[in-house]
Amino acid sequence: MRALFLATLLAATPALAADPVNITADTPSVTVETPAGPATIARNQNPENRLEGEWALTSRACPPFCIQPNTPAEGVATIGELELIDMLADPAAVVIDSRTPDWFEGGSIPGAINMPYTEMADRLAELGCELDFDGFLCEDVPAIALFCNGPWCGQSPTAIRRIIEAGYPADKISYYRGGMQVWRMLGLSVTGE
Fold it and tell me: Which domains, and CATH codes, for the chain?
């Protein structure tokens, strides 16, 4: 009888992660440089962790929150979390949170800088472009990745199209379509939490 009670109790107890929740099988975490110093990106170790609030919503009215295309412009690479983490670890690359400052201040990806989508086309000098009479000359510029709130957010796709039109080369741009919603869904580290 006691064995049956213990078996029932164990079956009803939430499972704890027997193994660590890594980024990949061989990568438990990655440390990236930020303006505030080193930041560690890792996954939440609580196997019971759930998204809450704004990030748990699955249905947003369209427009304005329509599902975005996988590729926002010709020549732009769409990337996932592992490729974004590689870019965050690369000191020559720039990862840009293209959301408005209020969203950025509410939590972002460690190592990302904030350049709101409404301003990016006017701020290309910060990425190494030179102002010219006809716009910007962007010859020796870094690889950049842009993200916003998730597959339903149009801020990054809008910014990408605008900066290409202003002169930034499409082949130097990556789009992290998953954005903050998928980043949080995977339990990855977020600033400000």
Answer: 19-185 (3.40.250.10)
